[in-house]
DNA sequence: CACATGCGTGCCGCTGAGCGGAACGAACCG
DNA sequence: CGGTTCGTTCCGCTCAGCGGCACGCATGTG
């Protein structure tokens, strides 16, 4: 067969690298340890190939044995820490986030955008805050979160197009599902420098977020404070969020 | 040209998995982004092969572009978080560690043993504590830390033999370098349930640590509090550490 | 300014590491 | 005790990985 055009949608890569990545990504938050057959099922790989790859990954510390099953290796945790450390973001933001939590007694977030979702780099939980589903290293649809909207407001049009093309999936009853409404909010965020989330990511939870901008004025990350809608006044804490975001923008860019 | 600086792992593994692992572990804490040639130099792989692998890893999100160079991908951070989450340790320990920091205003650690070193799973820095070199996801020789000695005291003889065979490398002027002294201390730790570090990991820094034990009485991790030697009385905080360690031991095992 | 050096990258023939269907022993279940 | 599913091994085929070679392009140096 003649391979006509080589448009690689990264979906069907028969390369060993893709297989290893598939195996690593097969682990989900709820899992403890997985067996070879289960991994083969999730990745779609033949069981024999899965078995061989698993053995290699065990030998290299990417996976660890747990009886007959395997789990993600500690080495991956070490590598993962270096991944964000290279951004310098987490270290720079930590003290500011700690101050924000201290002052508000609510939960603060640091997140970046990847594709159509935000990934939480840091989560500092506050004593008065609701038990949020956000998790360090976890994901959430960008359009349904304060940090996500803050980043989208200061990103290129192509980024927003990607998000809209993927569809505004609702995660709460008040999640924005209209692209027109979202565009309107993003414009207002650009005016005020603050993004609000009013029960769009979870019932009874509100949030104020601010973007961390680079020298060109594009968002590289965002921070936020989340709390109960009946206990936290978002307009009261907005100045603190905005101040911290501005300070961090300066710190991070001239690193 | 000397091959001394080379990474230590298995020398004769020409497998693709080993190469990918080598590339991932080529990144060190200080680095920002690395070029293909630098990666080839560190891993010992031919530059062409490095280039091809890097391209594959970029396509799969294991690496990310930064100009001409590459850095560890965000996906690795997500995977790394799942790696420790599967242990459940971090989540279970968090509140207890936070309490310990609150009570002592010093820095608390959660660490596990891997090989001859401890890996820090969590670090909560206290306002009164010295600026320690410990880092989440970072490593330190087990024999030179409180957490390390706490774990070694409740580990099998083979584990200790491995550590001794690797040599008791000094990291401070007071680091234990005699296997006899270390054995003696481990015996005393087993009696008291508490491990002390008296400036063995750093000048002016002391620490009290306690092991987290499984049902069989073997250490799976350890926690510690570190502070200035002239400001913190280790025997005063030892009971708190021991209590938290015992509570956590119970929580973690019957998860 | 010519030269040297090091970078990222593309080309291409060769080969052995990866591949996966088939099969096996050991649980586990109804 | 037949059926299912598990982890694991065997083995011949083949194509993905391999890496020497070379190019274009910045830098730096004599």
Automatic annotation (TrEMBL), chains A, B:
SMART domains membership: HTH_ICLR
GO biological process: negative regulation of DNA-templated transcription
UniProt keyword DNA-binding, yes or no: yes
Coiled-coil regions listed: none
GO molecular function, a single term: DNA-binding transcription factor activity
UniProt keyword terms in alphabetical order: DNA-binding, Transcription, Transcription regulation
Residue ranges annotated for the HTH iclR-type domain, each copy included: 14-74
Domain IclR-ED, residue spans: 75-254
PROSITE patterns: HTH_ICLR, ICLR_ED
InterPro entries linked to this entry: GAF-like_dom_sf, HTH_MetabolicPath_Reg, Tscrpt_reg_IclR_C, Tscrpt_reg_IclR_N, WH-like_DNA-bd_sf, WH_DNA-bd_sf
Alphabetized PANTHER family for the sequence: HELIX-TURN-HELIX TRANSCRIPTIONAL REGULATOR, ICLR FAMILY, HTH-TYPE TRANSCRIPTIONAL REPRESSOR ALLR
Record protein name field: IclR family transcriptional regulator
């Amino acid at each position: 067969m003649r391979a006509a055009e080589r448009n690689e949608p990264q979906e069907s890569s028969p390369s060993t690298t893709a297989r290893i990545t598939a195996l690593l990504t097969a682990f989900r938050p709820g899992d403890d340890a997985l067996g070879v057959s289960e991994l083969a099922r999730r990745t779609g790989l033949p069981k024999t190939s899965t078995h061989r790859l698993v053995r290699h990954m065990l030998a290299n510390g990417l996976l660890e044995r747990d009886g007959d099953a395997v789990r993600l290796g500690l080495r991956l945790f070490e590598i993962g820490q270096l991944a964000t450390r290279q951004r310098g973001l987490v270290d720079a933001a930590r003290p500011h986030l700690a101050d924000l939590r201290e002052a508000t007694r609510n939960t603060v977030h640091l997140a970046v955008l990847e594709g159509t979702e935000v990934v939480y780099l840091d989560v500092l939980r506050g004593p008065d805050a609701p038990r949020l589903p956000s998790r360090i290293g976890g994901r959430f649809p960008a359009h349904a979160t304060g940090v996500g909207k803050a980043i989208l407001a200061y990103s290129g049009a192509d980024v927003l197009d990607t998000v809209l093309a993927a569809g505004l999936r609702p995660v709460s009853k008040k999640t924005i599902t209209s692209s027109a409404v979202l565009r309107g909010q993003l414009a207002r965020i650009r005016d005020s420098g603050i993004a609000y989330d009013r029960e769009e990511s979870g019932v009874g939870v509100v949030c104020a977020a601010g973007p961390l901008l680079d020298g060109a004025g594009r968002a590289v990350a965002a921070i936020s404070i989340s709390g109960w809608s009946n206990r936290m006044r978002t307009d009261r804490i907005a100045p603190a969020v905005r101040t911290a975001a501005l300070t961090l923008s300066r710190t991070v860019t001239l690193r």
